[in-house]
Specification:
By secondary structure, this protein is an alpha/beta fold. It has helices at about 20-45, 105-115, 120-130, 140-155, 210-225, 240-250, 260-265, 270-285, 290-305, 310-315, 335, 340-355, 360-375, 390-395, and strands at about 60-65, 70-75, 75-80, 85, 165-175, 185-195, 200-205, 230-235, 255.
Length: about 400
C-alpha cells in the first residue's frame, strides 16, 4: 500500500573537511594543555592553588589576573595563550618565556631547512603554509635563528683532542664563495682516522689562504688542545701544508695525493697521449712494492722528457712523498694514498654551498660546512682495512713512523 504522506528530500548537508576540523580541535587541545601548564607553574611558585588562601610559610606573592592573550607558535600552528600575572616575586615561565613567540623546536626546524639548502627567503613561505599567517617568520628571523647555532661550532672548535689517538690525517683547503666579492676565502679542513679506522672531522677554519702560517696556526691550536702527532699526513701538493707539517709534526710521514698527481701530469700532455700516460700512472699507483712504484715513475718521466718536458718534470716533482703509504698496512692503502676521503665529503658539501652562491661572511660559510659535515659523518664508514691498524700500531711499539 502506497503512503499517502508526501515525500520530501532532506536538504543536502554541506561537505565537511574532517582533517581540517581535526587539526583545529588538536590545536585547541594543545592550547588548553599549554595554558594548564602555565597555571600549574604559577601554583608551584606560590605553593598554593588558585583561590586558595595563603597559609603561614607560603610565599607572600600573589596572582593578579593574566596578561593580554598573545599568539605563540608551535608545530601545531599558532595558539593563543594568556600568561598568569604574579606580583611580589620575579617569575618567568620555563616553557613560554616572556618575550618568546615560538617554540624552540621551530628554531631547530628553520635551521635544519637552511642547512638542507632552502634559502632564508624561502623558509618563511615554506613554514607559513603549515603554521598560519600569525607565525613570526621572516628572512630576518631565519638569519637571527641561524646565528644562535653558531655557538655549536665555537664549542666544537675548542674541545679537547687528548683522548683519542689518530693514525692518519687528510688535509685540504677548500675554496668557497664567501665574504666580499674581491676575496677568495678558503676553509682549512682536517679529517682523521683513529686506531679503529673511524673517521672524524678534526678541524675546520676559515682563512685567507693556504699559507704555511695559516696551517701552522691550525696545527698548533690542535696540539694545544692535546692532539697527539699522527703517523701519516695525506694532502695535495700545496707547499704551505708540508712546510707547516714539518715543523708541527716532524716525525709524521707525508703522502702526496695520487689523484692530484695524475691530474697535474695529464694536464701537461696532449689528448692523444692521455690514455697512455694515465695507464702508466695507474700502474705505478697500484704497484705492489715501493721499489716497483718508483721504477715505473722514473721510467715514465724518462719517456716523457724529450717530447713533453713539463709533464716529465711534473711526474718527478715531490716524488719521495708519493711512496710513503707503502710503510703502512697494505689493507689501508686504498684509503691513504689519496685525499679522496676528504674530497668525497666536499663533493656532497658543494651541492649545498653552490646553491647558496656567495655567502656574506667566512664565519657563516665555515659554520654551514661544519653543520653539513657533522650531518654527513653519521653515515661514514671506517677506512679500508681498519682491522689491521691496531696490529700495526702494536708492532711499532707505539712509536711514530
Amino acid at each position: 500500500m502506497q503512503s499517502s504522506y508526501p515525500t520530501t528530500t532532506p536538504p543536502a548537508m554541506p561537505p565537511r573537511d574532517f582533517l581540517a576540523e581535526f587539526e583545529e580541535a588538536a590545536r585547541a587541545k594543545v592550547s588548553e594543555l599549554l595554558q594548564t601548564y602555565l597555571e600549574q607553574e604559577a601554583d608551584a611558585l606560590l605553593q598554593r592553588a588558585r583561590y586558595q588562601r595563603r597559609e603561614a610559610g607560603m610565599p607572600a606573592a600573589y596572582r593578579d589576573g593574566h596578561d593580554e592573550p598573545r599568539p605563540f607558535t608551535t608545530s601545531q600552528g599558532t595558539l593563543s595563550i594568556a600568561r598568569p600575572r604574579i606580583r611580589g616575586v620575579a617569575h618567568d615561565s620555563s616553557v613560554v618565556p616572556r618575550y618568546q613567540r615560538r617554540a624552540a623546536s621551530l628554531d631547530t626546524a628553520m635551521h635544519a631547512l637552511w642547512i638542507e639548502g632552502l634559502a632564508t627567503r624561502d623558509v618563511e613561505p615554506a613554514l607559513r603554509a603549515l603554521l598560519g599567517e600569525q607565525a613570526p617568520l621572516s628572512a630576518a628571523t631565519v638569519t637571527r635563528t641561524n646565528a644562535k647555532f653558531f655557538g655549536d661550532y665555537d664549542d666544537w672548535s675548542k674541545r679537547s683532542l687528548a683522548d683519542t689517538e689518530f693514525v692518519y690525517l687528510w688535509l685540504d683547503g677548500i675554496f668557497l664563495g664567501a665574504g666580499p666579492d674581491d676575496e677568495r676565502r678558503v676553509i682549512l679542513t682536517i679529517l682523521g682516522a683513529d686506531t679503529n679506522g673511524t673517521k672524524h672531522l678534526l678541524a675546520l677554519r676559515d682563512a685567507m689562504s693556504e699559507s704555511e702560517i695559516s696551517w701552522s696556526e691550525l696545527f698548533e691550536d690542535m696540539k694545544a688542545r692535546g692532539f697527539k702527532p699522527p703517523r701519516l699526513l695525506i694532502a695535495d701538493g700545496a707547499n704551505g701544508i708540508w712546510a707547516a707539517a714539518e715543523k708541527s709534526f716532524p716525525d709524521a710521514r707525508q703522502q702526496r695525493c695520487w689523484f692530484h698527481k695524475i691530474k697535474n701530469v695529464l694536464d701537461k700532455v696532449p689528448k692523444s697521449k692521455t690514455d697512455e700516460v694515465k695507464t702508466a700512472l695507474n700502474e705505478a699507483m697500484y704497484s705492489k712494492t715501493k721499489e716497483l712504484c718508483e721504477s715505473r715513475m722514473v721510467a715514465l718521466a724518462t719517456s716523457l722528457a724529450t717530447g713533453y718536458p713539463q709533464a716529465s718534470a711534473s711526474v718527478q716533482e715531490d716524488l719521495p712523498r708519493m711512496f710513503s703509504f707503502f710503510a703502512f698496512p697494505k689493507h689501508n692503502w686504498k684509503s691513504i694514498r689519496t685525499s679522496n676521503p676528504i674530497e668525497s665529503v666536499f663533493a656532497s658539501v658543494r651541492l649545498r654551498t653552490d646553491a647558496a652562491k656567495r655567502m656574506r661572511t667566512g664565519a657563516s660559510a665555515t659554520y654551514l660546512v661544519f653543520a653539513l659535515i657533522r650531518r654527513l659523518s653519521a653515515n661514514w664508514n671506517r677506512i679500508s682495512g681498519h682491522k689491521h691498524i691496531a696490529a700495526f700500531i702494536a708492532a711499532m711499539g707505539g712509536v711514530a713512523a
